[in-house]
Amino acid sequence: MISLKRQARLRREYLYRRALEIAAAGAETSRQRGPPGLARPGGASSTPSARRDTSDADEKVQITEEALRHPIRMLATTRLMLDDEYATAGVADPKIVITTSRNPSSRLCQFAKEVRFLFPNAQRLNRGNLILKDLIELGRAQQLTDLVLLHETRGEPDALIVCHLPLGPTAYFALSNVVMRHDVAEMLRHEHQNSPDAALPPLSEAYPHVIFEGSFQSRLGMRVKNMLRFLFPVPKPDSKRIVAFIDKGYDGILSFRHYIVERRRTAAADDSSDDEEAGTATASSSAGRIQGHQQHQALIELGPRFDLGLFRIRLGTLEQQDADDEWRLAPYTRSARKRRRLFG
Which InterPro entries match (predicted)? Predict the structure, then answer.
């Protein structure tokens, strides 16, 4: 188990490197934007005060760049937002534990079971009387990479917290429009009217392909994208399982969907008489048909489905109440006219 002094030292070093990365990003932004009053192409000539501001800004940028290490500056200027917490992402498979709040309802327990099948190699832990500090210490001792905590209000799941171990960060999401897997099955039966296509395929534990639909070009979008995609291991190219995070484009809402690509059969046109008259049957006409049916690729939703609303990113772990906030939603400071895409 990591000692308290070593843990505090590692956290200080981590926060220092994050501060250097943010400073490098600010220096690069100020260099690209330039000081106020600087002459632009096709504009008026710069004033002496603007020239003095330019020289001062260049000196500050030069001092900042000399103080920063080259790899960290490169990391910030390329906007990869990959700190050393995710250095082994893609090399080693993530180890995730799914747990709930205390005294969970039956619906939250069922939802936790379904979330556990979303992440390969994940395990579900009964919370019991464990406090947050014990959960984090247990995760560090078992060398877990992430801890996912589910909350509810009156039996309805309403929050999902992703805590990256051992030093953070921690992302807080609000859950809405939660549809369980058995509810998805009932929706399919209602849509297809008890046809064979209404049968929900079994859950697959294959490594899924992770798709992010949207730009995700802002610093916040890239940060959230990295935190979510590193929950999943690297899939095989022929994997038929798909996990999608869809940016709805307003208020930072991400829609989660879970699919699988499956071969389905549909009724084919009866052209066997024509083939008999022609006296030949081509391989192309018989390859896709089996006993009067034609095969095609279908995208089947497996469930569950829900919407994620990001409202906080904390630099520390879950039990550190004094950790700084990297980003926090301020819902009452923007009017409808000032609405913008949070993730780029």
Answer: Brix, IMP4/RPF1
